[in-house]
Design brief:
86% of the residues lie in helices and 0% in strands. The protein has 94 residues and is mostly helical. The longest helix has 33 residues, at 19-51.
Length: 94
C-alpha cells in the first residue's frame, strides 16, 4: 500500500516514470488480496459461520467498519480505486 501511495503521489505530481512502480505495487497487492480473500472465503468464514451467531456477526461488521473509518479514513478505499483507474487510463493512452 505504501508503495502504491508513494508512486501514485509522484505520478500525480507529474513524474510519469513512477507509473511502472505504481502498477507493479498495485499488481502485487491485488495478488496478495486474491490469496487472502480465497482463504477467508473458503476457510475462515465457513469456520466462523459454525460458531458465531447472527448477532455476533452483525457486531463484528459494525466494528470492522468503525476501525476502517478510524484507521484508514473515510473515502480512502475510493481514492485507491480512482488511482488504479487513472493508472489504467494512462497505460492505454501512454
Amino acid at each position: 500500500m505504501r508503495g502504491m501511495d508513494e508512486a501514485g503521489k509522484r505520478f500525480a505530481s507529474g513524474d510519469k516514470t513512477s507509473l511502472k512502480a505504481a502498477l507493479d505495487n498495485a499488481r502485487g497487492y491485488a495478488e496478495l488480496l486474491r490469496q487472502h480473500i480465497d482463504k477467508e472465503d473458503n476457510i475462515l468464514y465457513q469456520m466462523a459461520d459454525q460458531v458465531l451467531t447472527t448477532t455476533d456477526q452483525e457486531e463484528l461488521l459494525s466494528r470492522f467498519e468503525e476501525v476502517e473509518r478510524e484507521r484508514i479514513g473515510a473515502g480512502k478505499h475510493e481514492e485507491y480505486v480512482k488511482l488504479v483507474e487513472d493508472l489504467e487510463r494512462e497505460m492505454v493512452q501512454g
